[in-house]
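Before our next group meeting I need something from you. Please put the record directly below this note.
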Amino acid sequence: MERQLNVPPHSIEAEQGVLGGLLLDNRAWDLVADKVHPEDFYRNDHRQIFGAILELADRGEPFDIVTVSEVLEGKSGWGGLAYVAELAKNTPSVANIVAYAKIVSERAHLRRLISIGFEMSRQAYEPGADVAL
């Protein structure tokens, strides 16, 4: 019998759709700003790229391939200018960005629930664990 690895819930495609959509059209920021946060992204490079977009949006500055890459310059693990350009190129439009943001948020919520469950289980194995609920 083959053992199946449990991969945390995520959707790389939805994450790419959110990031690419924002790079294509800054007006889409208002559609997703309150729906997703950097920590909602599963991939570290996506968290960093979204964080750069958030930083630029907070400053009222435009975010695109060049400005996001400038913010991330000197940091490691974000994929580089070529990856940011690929995100924009591979996203056909921002039409579904709200749906993509919802997927990213929901998967992040599931990962948080899994983490809480693991922590509860770990604590239950501790000697002298408090069994009062």
